[in-house]
Amino acid sequence: MSAGNGCGAPEGGVTLTDGQAEDQAVIQGTVTRDAQPLRGAYARLLNTDGEFAGEVATGDEGTFRFFAADGDWRIRVLASQGFSAEYEVTAQTGKVVDLQVHA
Amino acid sequence: MSRSDVLVDADWVEAHLDDPQVILVEVDEDTTAYDKGHIRGAVKIDWKQDLQDPVRRDFIDKTGFERLLSARGIANDHTVVLYGGNNNWFAAYAYWYFKLYGHQDVRLLDGGRKKWELDSRELVTDVPERAATSYTASEQDSSIRALRDEVVDAIGTKDLVDVRSPDEFVGKLLAPAHLPQESAQRAGHIPTARNIPWSQAANEDGTFKSNEELRELYEEAGVDLNKDIIAYCRIGERSSHTWFALHELLGLDNVKNYDGSWTEYGSLVGVPVELGEAK
């Protein structure tokens, strides 16, 4: 897996090699509406003080992915039609936290 | 200069979709976003492929910029409206870049792609065909770009504004959290820098906060707006967003963007680095 030189988030987030977290603390999820993946939703990673750490727009698969550090985090998901939801998660190196969001 | 001279909202853009004097430019790092849907009539500029020198770490030169804008059908007297993903990070970077090469009338779409999508406004896949122009750029405006040596000299003398997330500032993360944490650089921040994350200048939908809120934000964080200010982040796009807030919205002339940012500073040998909260 490579971060490249950039700073932007590709749609859906950076892909994992073989779906493995390896040395990363991964938080990911899938946003669906009416049982279909929702494109153009926004997932935002916040620390426990509510400060922004990253944001990913979902692509055709409705997915988002973050590479956090060990500890507690919050995920806020925004979507069209005024949808907003927040989740508390705990990240751990080598683990993948997976959220299912019904928008 | 009024706010509407530099920042336009989605209604303004919809009203000018067929205005031949106005050209929309989507700027992303991930150009698949443009390919799958963009505002009608918009052309794309790739942050990396189009704006960076392919060999050295630097920008394309004046001639390269002229060639790029000519090929995109952008003329010197066009009103260029930039927008993009990631809360306009790369659009703000392109804005600063267009100003660096002297384009007169550049504006940002407030909220960028995100607000446009959250409002469920129209996106199309048709790529417009535009006649090439003969664009003439100015020499780079060094009053808005800070280079390495000026930044090292600024420690303790100028206001350094680190706009990365608090977790990057203190050294917990090396990159924004949507990227793998594998950068080779040292973690931390430039001593004396204040940490005012770019996100605090924006509302949740990606639009900029009001001038009153912006002024209060920076002053409360201990930034003297009368002093020379240098903004930095990791590669200079998030700090372009803050440069836009300070230089264009608040109208401060004394603000530079350090595009080398942490990927350069955090790799320099022998320069001071601070960890933890701002001292």
TrEMBL record, chain A:
Residues 1-11 have a biased composition (Gly residues). This is DUF1416 domain-containing protein. Residues 1-20 are annotated as: Disordered.
Automatic annotation (TrEMBL), chain B:
This is Sulfurtransferase. The keyword NAD does not apply. GO terms for molecular function: transferase activity. InterPro entries: Rhodanese-like_dom, Rhodanese-like_dom_sf, Thiosulfate_sulfurtransferase, Thiosulphate_STrfase_CS. Signal peptide: none annotated. It catalyses: thiosulfate + hydrogen cyanide = thiocyanate + sulfite + 2 H(+). It holds the Pfam family Rhodanese. Keywords: Repeat, Transferase. SUPFAM superfamilies: Rhodanese/Cell cycle control phosphatase. Gene3D superfamilies: Rhodanese-like domain. It comes from the Bacteria. Residues 18-125, 160-274 form the Rhodanese domain. The keyword Repeat applies. It comes from Lipingzhangella rawalii. Transmembrane segments: none annotated.
